[in-house]
Amino acid sequence: PGDEREPPELGLLRTARDPQARIQEQVTLDSDQVRVSLLTFDPGAASGRHVGLEPELGIVAEGELTLITDAGREVLRPGAARYLPALVPHDARNEGWPNWIAHVQTT
């Protein structure tokens, strides 16, 4: 795991999401075999705890992602990749200042 230190003023984002924050999805490839999307999370945006019906592979392109699963909390930085099997409960959050951008692939 990486360094999880952050400026103190960001601590509020750990307990409450910004209701104005958006998650934007741009589908770059969609076929019977794979779906690839570019996700952009505004600062304070969170997916909420959910499960995917398909496996997910995410690669952080910019910013930082906080990934929360039953295994714990992990801060991912640019270049980090994580695979989640289908039906694994998780929450993805941008708890930082800049937008968080990732490529997500499902099969």
Structural features, described:
This protein is mainly β and 107 residues long. 0% of the residues lie in helices and 44% in strands. It contains no helices and 8 strands. It has strands at 23-30, 35-41, 56-62, 65-69, 72-76, 81-84, 90-93, 100-106. It has a 5-stranded antiparallel beta sheet with strand order 1-2-8-3-6, with no helix packed on it. The radius of gyration is 13 Å and the shape is globular. Residues 1-16 have low confidence and may be disordered.
Short description:
With 107 residues, the protein is an all-beta fold. The protein has strands at residues 23-30, 35-41, 56-62, 65-69, 72-76, 81-84, 90-93, 100-106.
SSE order and pairing:
Elements: E1 23-30, E2 35-41, E3 56-62, E4 65-69, E5 72-76, E6 81-84, E7 90-93, E8 100-106
Individual helix count: 0
Rg over CA atoms, rounded to whole Å, is: 13 Å
The arrangement of helices and strands along the chain is EEEEEEEE
Determine the N-to-C terminus distance.
27 Å
Strand order of the largest sheet: 1-2-8-3-6
Structural class: mainly beta
* Counted beta strands: 8
What does the average pLDDT come to?
Answer: 81
**Spans of at least 5 consecutive residues with low confidence:** 1-16
Apparent shape: globular
Strand % is 35-45%
Largest sheet report: 5 strands, antiparallel
